[in-house]
Every structure is written in C-alpha cells, then in structure tokens.
Amino acid sequence: MPWPHKDLLDVTQLSKEEILLLLDTAQRFAEINTRPVKKAPVLKGKSVVLFFAEPSTRTRVSFDVAAKRLSADSFAIATSGSSLQKGESLADTARTLEAMHPDAIVIRHHASGAAQYLAERLACSVINAGDGQHAHPTQALLDAFTLRQAWNGELEGKTLTILGDIAHSRVARSGVDLFSRLGIQVRLCAPRTLLPPGLASWPAEVFTDPKAALAGTDAVMCLRLQLERQQAGLLPSLNEYAARYGLSSRLLAAAPDALILHPGPMNRGIEIASDLADGPKSRILHQVAAGVAVRMAVLHLLLTRKP
Ligand code: CP
Description:
Elements: H1 16-32, E1 47-52, H2 58-69, E2 73-78, H3 90-98, E3 104-109, H4 114-119, E4 125-131, H5 137-150, E5 159-163, H6 170-181, E6 185-189, E7 205-207, H7 210-214, E8 219-222, H8 238-245, H9 249-252, E9 259-261, H10 274-277, H11 284-303
Parallel strand pairs: 1-2, 1-3, 3-4, 5-6, 5-8, 6-7, 8-9
The structure holds phosphoric acid mono(formamide)ester.
The site of phosphoric acid mono(formamide)ester has 9 residues, from α2.
C-alpha cells in the first residue's frame, strides 16, 4: 500500500489500514533494535530536524535514535540556545530550518495546532511530537504497539482504562481515537474537574469512580498530573488526588491481572505507586522501546513515500 501522507499531524488522519501498516512496519524495525549492529541504510542521505520548543526526553531521544538507526542525519534545536529566545516567530524559525533542506521536521510545541501550521507552509514532512493539549500521534501508536505485543496481536474486545488528568492530555486525545478504532473498549476516569468538555462525542465510557473504571479492565494507563498546565482550584490537594486516583495495589485489586502503562514522565506517588511502576505488570519501559520502533516506521513511511 503506497503511503499517501506528507505529514503526521494526528492519528485521526490515518485509516485503519494505514495504522496497521505503521504498526507492522514498526514490528519489522523492532528487530533492528536487538541486533549487535543497530543500523540499516534505509534512510541514508535523508536529514531530520528535531525542533523541540517544549521539554522532552522520550520523544526527542527516540526520534533521534530512530533517525540514526535508519542512517538518516538528525539535528536538534530547542528554545534554549536558539533564536526563538530572541523572539523569532515559529514560522520564521521553521522557514529558516527548511532553507537547509531537511526531509522532515519533528516538532513539539506548547501551542495546539503548531504542527499543522508548519505543515501548511513547508514542503518537507512535518511530524507532530506533541502540540499543546491537542495531539501526540506517535505516543498513541507506540501505546497500541505495546498492547498488541503484550496481547499477541489481539486488541479487539480488550478493555483499557485511562486514569488521570484527561483534561490536559494530548496523549488521551490521540489514544482514545486510535485504540477505539483498533477495537479496544476505552474507559476514561478522572475527577470531574480533570475531564474536558465535549466528552460525549469521544468513543469512550466516562467514570469519576476509579474502582468502577478499573473493574475487570485488561490494562490501565495512568496519566501524568500536568501540574504545569493546571489552573488553581482544579484539585483540593495533591494528597487527596493521590489517595483517590493514584494507582495503588488497593485500587488495582479490582483488576489484578491488568497491564500497567504510563506515557511518562511519571509523578511517582501521585498518579502511580512506585511498586506498580516497577512491578511485573508494568509495561512502561516496553513503551519506551516501542517508541523507537514506531518512530523508525513513521520516518521510513514518510521519507520514502512517492509524492
Ligand atoms: N511521553 C512523552 O511524550 O514523554 P516526553 O515528554 O519525555 O517526550
């Protein structure tokens, strides 16, 4: 199937067939990551700019590793140390980068829509590495990849509970769309103040009681409490939030076999207890490994597409 998309802005632009092609391609690339020599000449001569205007460890490093493993050259710029600090606009920065003829720009930005704004103005591929509260498509893809591996390819009919700060989460927005289209039944659970407006149109069941949300679930994904995006007054206190909504062994008694995911970075002791994050049911480091394979697949499909 020829890949039709110049850019990856959100999972909503992908058909189910394209999602499966991406996951299958990632599966093939995952093998490269276990070889003694972790390199394939697939993207030799291509160059990728990593333009991260917000902090990131997993996404930035895994895109960098993915590009290098496929023999592309990668260049990183961040707000700190770039002319963004002197007030240069997003469009001017992007046009300046494009004048150096990269094949793709991977962008993380605090403004929802920043990736689309660039995609409409640049000839090179634009990949959304997380824009504001809007979308994080490669996170949703790597989460689906992780679950598919854990469940031997069987996603249809499984239940995933997403627990935590849904209101501020681009991970939840992209994830709900992708998981539901792969046949996973999604449950969302948060205190009322951390549920976004318009949830009625999301393909998910909504809960405020974590015990009810977790009952019999096959997997739970804890979301980081995004303290940097919170307005005052959304929570009575961190301690009360942790006691009621933090994933603990007590809470998980409702689903003792459930797999545990977290996109990271974690607030240990707030949305997830350390013994669970590091325990046998945790797939958190599998998610990180999946991130490299999925981002290899994204770079490969976008950069080898025939216009
Ligand atoms: N999950 C995720 O996007 O992590 P980073 O912020 O470390 O990239």
